[in-house]
Design brief:
21 helices, 509 residues, globular, Neurolysin, domain 3, mainly alpha, binds zinc ion
């Protein structure tokens, strides 16, 4: 095992540099005074450059070749063979992008995000436009450097969702749209008004935090290997399996923001806390992909945290904390209020049922941008037209339309589909866990989640990046990626809440 251990030692050094950068980034978002920003940017650039140089070096090439000679004789399912395979893949990608291109793009990205931060509150697309044009140009060039067989989008999607192809996403999204639109339309046509106004009363921060922590601990998020802080944009960040942190944002007059945010981020964090300790300081010690990562956060946020059995246990505890706000609201009314379906222009405020329409809209536009069929300067009109087509409404302005997300400002094109993949995969995994443990959701009524967490640990978490996402799904559920469980789930849940027997999504399998 000599050459593989040598490779591991080398990768461990690179991992140390990268995770030091991640700690600095976490600090910048949570604790750092604004005065530190300028020099912090230099520190982060230095560490990123060092990690990149170490990784694309001739040392890596030599150690990797030696390790491959050994790995070829091992079981392909062994951890060692997987480590070598994943490292070769990462090395191939990192080496295709010229160092000058990477550095130039990194600088442009931070300036572009800055321009977006200025432009959005002023609803000033003209200010952001030249940067957006550059970001699209960088994305197209990156796709050319990385290479693709079918569509330039494949090259970018592969960075976030290894081995996933644009045509697979096309097929999946078409089925999802056909499967959900009849239910969305039936709900909208009914025009039933749900009272959720009590969620906008004032809820003190300490109470929100205490409730969120109690639930996250109940889920199994280990606070001796994690912590909860505040940041403007909530995120989870893992430095190693013994230190995976989350953040949230408290909105005093909108209770769902922080509490569902904490459920969501603790789902991400429990994934990384559950990766095999033997993968520590290697490229395997992370999630399999953004889509699989999101399947974990969505599962705890929605399938658990927005379910009736969950609130049967937790609603009395929430009401005890906030008697003035919730005293006259019963568990049913609360459950319905946190599951309202509504067509709205903003993705991050969308409910479970309409959320994916927002992603489809972005996916269509991104493909056109990469194909050169749509110019960045024409995005506002294209956005509004697609919004009308997919959501039946146009945003009030560009701030609530084309400029609402941060992703394009940093050139993250190809990223959005992973959100919908996460939704789809969350239910496919959840159904598999339920098949293995038919009483699973009854345990939620008693505030017990250890059976679900153990199943996830066993079938998903411990493997880290060892398997490609589709392979992991196949191994965990016995089937290839499929939207049918997800469509059934939406139909049952929202059909019941709104008293509609749509049957729209249910397909014969
Ligand atoms: Zn997430």
């Amino acid at each position: 095992m000599g050459p593989i251990d040598d490779l591991k030692t080398h990768l461990g050094t690179i991992h140390d540099v990268s995770s030091a950068a991640a700690v600095l980034r976490w600090d910048q978002e949570t604790k750092m005074p604004p005065g530190g920003a300028k020099v912090r940017a230099e520190q982060l650039a230095t560490l990123s450059r060092l990690a990149h140089q170490l990784f694309v070096s001739s040392d890596t090439e030599r150690l990797l070749a030696a390790a491959e000679a050994v790995a070829g004789t091992l079981d392909p399912d062994s951890d060692e063979a997987a480590l070598v395979r994943v490292t070769r893949r990462d090395f191939g990608i990192a080496s295709k992008l010229p160092a000058d291109f990477v550095a130039e793009r990194a600088r442009a990205r931070s300036l572009s995000t800055e321009a977006w931060r200025e432009a959005r509150p002023r609803n000033d697309f003209a200010h952001f436009r030249p940067w957006l044009e550059q970001m699209v140009d960088y994305a197209r060039r990156a796709a050319e450097y990385l290479g693709y067989a079918d569509h330039p989008y494949d090259a970018l999607l592969d960075l976030y969702e290894p081995n996933m192809k644009t045509r697979d996403v096309n097929v999946l999204f078409t089925r999802l749209r056909e499967g959900t639109l009849p239910l969305v339309n039936a709900i909208v046509d009914r025009g039933q008004v749900v009272d959720s106004s009590f969620l906008s009363l004032e809820f003190d921060k300490e109470g929100q935090r205490a409730f969120g922590v109690m639930v996250a601990e109940g889920f199994g998020y280990d606070f001796s290997r994690g912590r909860l802080d505040e940041s403007p944009h909530p995120f989870a960040s893992g430095f190693n399996t013994g230190d995976v942190r989350i953040t949230t944002r408290y909105v005093l007059r909108h209770l769902p923001s922080a509490i569902f945010g904490i459920f969501h981020e603790s789902g991400h964090a429990m994934y990384e806390q559950g990766v095999a300790r033997t993968f520590e300081r290697t490229p395997l010690a992370r999630g399999a992909s953004l889509g699989i990562h999101e399947s974990q956060s969505r599962m705890w946020e929605n399938l658990v945290g927005r379910s009736r059995p969950f609130w049967e246990h937790f609603y009395p505890k929430l009401r005890e904390r906030f008697p003035a706000q919730l005293g006259r609201i019963d568990a049913d009314a609360f459950f319905t209020a946190v599951n309202v379906v509504e067509l709205s222009p903003i993705r991050v405020e969308a409910d479970e049922l309409t959320y994916n329409l927002h992603i489809m809209l972005r996916f269509e536009l991104e493909k056109q941008l990469l194909e050169g069929k749509l110019a960045a300067r024409d995005l506002p009109e294209a956005w509004n037209a697609k919004s009308k087509e997919y959501l039946g409404l146009e945003p009030r302005n560009d701030a609530d339309g084309v400029m609402q997300d941060i992703h394009w400002s940093s050139g993250s094109i190809g990223y959005f589909p992973t959100y919908t993949l996460g939704n789809v995969v969350s239910v496919q995994l959840f159904e598999a866990a339920q098949r293995a443990h038919p009483g699973l959701t009854d345990e939620f009524k008693a505030g017990k989640f250890s059976t679900l967490l153990s199943w996830l640990r066993q079938h998903v978490h411990r493997h880290g990046r060892k398997f490609f996402p589709r392979d992991l799904i196949q191994r965990a559920t016995g089937a290839d990626l499929t939207p049918e469980p997800y469509l059934r789930y939406l139909d049952t849940k929202f059909g019941t809440i709104y008293g509609i027997r749509a049957g729209a999504g249910a397909a014969t399998e």
